[in-house]
Write a structure and sequence with these properties.
By secondary structure, this protein is an alpha/beta fold. The protein has two domains: 1-96 and 184-300, Metal-dependent hydrolases (TIM Barrel), CATH 3.20.20; 105-169, DNA polymerase, domain 1 (Orthogonal Bundle), CATH 1.10.150. 37% of the residues lie in helices and 13% in strands. The protein is built from nine helices and seven strands; from the N terminus they run βαβαββαααααβαβαβ. Strands 1-2-3-4-5-6-7 form a seven-stranded mixed β-sheet.
């Protein structure tokens, strides 16, 4: 992020978790940055799943359009911990660093193998052309479970993506394939070697009890992780307050992001993103103009 500049405003809006068609988002990189500007976002991190392929096009769109947007190079890395898939966001990375390139190449092979097995299982269950349909939606980029879910909705197998995951792609269901991702330690190391900060993504979504969530965060902190997402747009103030407390207890910086994939009723770029008081924001040492009130004590 060297040399970047955030325009001065009463409150800079940071959205540090978003996706494009390079992974399982529905907007191209150019469309995503344009939407971010329309939604009033000042600082946007593009964090596609296990790929940085969308970053060059996003940078060109910002530059060519002279958009008032600071773009943060990011990635969302899938890891495995205690048989749970845990996502680690890397912020401010050098996308071409050898350590990052090597990790993402290995992740790509694992993702490809998993996707082919998912397709085979769906085909065996009588769902034709699952591989071709998912690839078409992925536009020849990385195929994710989200692409399979969208394909199944498109052919009328289910009414929505959530039902597909519940009935076909979750653990114990026909199309479920256990992940074989890298470890948290490997993800943190690659992010930091690439000059970035490692952040636990959406910690409240892993269906862990409070006891196990604390164990996860302790493990991440012991691995040298930098921060955790405290604020997502669909959370209640109480949820943010609880996560902020976990961050403070472990000396982790606080991040925020919409985890935007596509427009929906409860998730939008920049929406309701604020940090409770008493936490240090992940951007505190970034080489950008600091806004006068980056942390809020109540939803505004």
């Amino acid at each position: 992020m060297t040399g970047t500049y955030v325009k001065s405003s009463l409150l800079t809006i940071y959205d540090l978790h978003s996706h494009t068609t390079a992974s399982d988002g529905v907007f191209s990189p150019a469309e995503l940055v344009a939407r971010a500007v329309a939604m009033g976002v000042d600082v946007l991190a593009i964090t596609d799943h296990d790929t940085v392929a969308g970053l060059p096009a996003a940078r060109r769109a910002v530059s060519d359009g002279a958009l008032p947007l600071t773009l943060v190079a990011g990635v969302e890395i899938s890891t495995l911990w205690q048989n749970h898939e845990i996502h680690i966001v890397g912020l401010g990375i050098d996308a071409e660093h050898p350590a990052m390139a090597a990790l993402l190449a290995a992740q790509r092979e694992k993702r490809l193998a998993r996707a082919r097995t998912i397709a085979a299982r769906l085909e065996h269950a009588g769902i034709a052309n699952a591989w071709e349909g998912a690839n078409r939606l992925a536009e020849d980029e990385l195929v994710t479970r989200g692409h399979f879910a969208r394909y199944l909705v498109s052919i009328g197998v289910a009414d929505n993506v959530a039902k597909v995951f519940k009935n076909y792609l979750s653990q114990g269901k026909t199309g479920y394939v256990p992940p074989q991702w890298c470890t948290i330690e490997e993800a943190v190391r690659a992010v930091q070697q690439a000059g970035g900060q490692a952040v636990v993504a959406h910690p409240g979504r892993y269906r862990l009890s409070a006891k196990w969530l604390k164990r996860l965060l302790d493990h991440f902190a012991a691995a040298g992780g930098d921060g955790m997402e405290v604020s997502l747009c669909q959370q209640t103030p109480q949820e943010k307050t609880v996560l902020a407390g976990y961050a403070r207890e472990r000396g982790l910086l606080a991040s925020q992001g919409s985890d935007f994939h596509q427009p929906c009723a409860w998730i939008e770029l920049g929406r309701k993103l604020w940090l409770p008081g008493g936490v240090e924001p992940i951007w505190r040492d970034w080489p950008v103009a600091r806004d006068p009130a980056p942390v809020m004590s109540s939803e505004g």
